[in-house]
Amino acid sequence: MADLFLGVDFGDTRTGLAVSDPTGLIATGIGCVKCNNMKKTAEQVSAKALELGVNKIIIGHPINMNGTLGPRSERAKAFAEYVREMSGIETELFDERLSTANAYQILNVTGTKGSKRRGIIDELSARLILQNYLDKIKNTISHNNM
User: Fold this and answer.
1) 35-57 b/e with 16+ CB inside 10 Å = b?
2) Are 78 and 43 in contact (CB under 8 A)?
């Protein structure tokens, strides 16, 4: 697999970003976009995707724990559409349930506190979303080859 993927944890104020390695096996956090306007955030994410030369943008889809879709899901869908239109790159929503909770757990284990924590939580969430996506692809390919 030689595709590059951009993972996005879309938020109201900060939007975390992560990118895959060229093999599609490992997600690495690459920072955050700080903006509280959906269209401007989409412009910045699109510009980063084009700069990196990614083939696909994976955007966290905030599905409720019971599987229902709420207002945050609708915002993510609208954001994904803006990014797709602005970048011309395929976008996909991917279930992000528990990604932020898992990110907080990792920060607790590593002892990351205070302003450091706020600065990396969104990037770490984007990394987890993208890593889960990459693992799902890898597992699907492995399963289909059996």
Assistant:
1) beebeebbbbbbebbeeeebbbb
2) no
User: In 3D, which of 64, 75, 70, 88 has the Cα closest to residue 41?
Assistant: 75
What does 91-127 look like in DSSP terms, one character per residue?
A: EEEEE-TTHHHHHHHHHHHHT--HHHHHHHHHHHHHH
pLDDT (tens digit per residue) in 62-111: 988 788 888 899 999 999 999 999 999 999 999 987 666 667 777 777 77
Structural domains of the chain, with CATH = 5-144 (3.30.420.140)
| pTM for the full predicted model | 0.86
Q: State the alpha helices, DSSP H only, in the chain.
A: 38-52, 71-87, 99-110, 114-144
